[in-house]
Amino acid sequence: MHYLKKVLPVLISLLTIVGCNQSEKEKGLGTTTLPADTNLGQGKRQTIGDTRSAAAEQIFLEETGRIVLLELEMSNVSLQRASRPELKAYTEKMMDGTRKFHDQLQQVAIGLAYQLPGSLPSRLQMQVDELKKLEGQGFDLEYIKSIHELQSKTLDNLHGAIRFKKGPVQEFAVSELDGVNKMLEQTVIIDSLIKKANPDQPGDDLLRIDRKHIK
Questions:
Q1: Among positive and negative, which fits the CA dihedral 139, 119, 76, 193?
Q2: Where would I find the beta strands (DSSP E) of the chain?
Q3: What phi and psi, each to the nearest 5 degrees, are found at residue 135?
């Protein structure tokens, strides 16, 4: 008993020292699990968000670039095949705006180290080839219908890109939205004129069903 009284205080002191050393060691190394709100956890989530944003921007650039190429290819055909002088005049004016739009889009893509499509995929080239087979009033109706659809898709893409995080793509979408709206408005007017000149031709009344795109 006398021996235990001498040894017990020594053991308690040793255990206290070991506990303190272990606590200091844990402070130096940190824990092995990170709470969700640590800086590292936030950084990881930010990286995922950036990756998704970059992917969405790339999709926008690729799809919009392809649409613009198709517009220009079809419009080149229109300069040769359109039967109405007002449609040819519209085509020339529209192509000027579309080329400027494409040039600006190209600059945004270059700044992001991305290459816009340089040619049409076969499925879209087939649309151009089919358009080349048409003549006269049939061509006029099909061309303006196709251009209207393409411009509407571009407008939808711009509306989507406006919701991207602030950056070159989002700023491009904001700056180009008004111009595409005005271009689409001119397309609707020309479409209406062509339909009035060809009342027996089937087709949707674009002036009626697509006013939602004009703001």
A1: positive
A2: none
A3: -140, 165
Residue 126, judged by CB atoms within 10 A of its CB (0-12, 13-18, 19+), counts as exposed
Closest by CA to 190, choosing from 83, 100, 96, 101, is 83
Place of tokens 């130096």: 28
What is the token pair recorded at 117?
């499509």
pLDDT in tens, 184-212: 999 999 999 998 877 665 544 443 334 34
> How far apart, in whole angstroms, are the C-alpha atoms of residue 182 and residue 191?
14
Cα(154)–Cα(213) distance, rounded to whole angstroms? 11
pLDDT digits (tens, 9 = 90+) for 9-33: 554 554 454 455 544 444 444 433 3
Choose among 162, 156, 57: nearest CA to 108: 57
Could you say which DSSP state residue 212 is in?
A: G
Q: Are 116 and 106 in contact (CB under 8 A)?
A: yes
Q: Which residues contact 143 (CB under 8 A, 6 or more apart)?
A: 74, 77, 78, 81, 82, 87, 131, 134
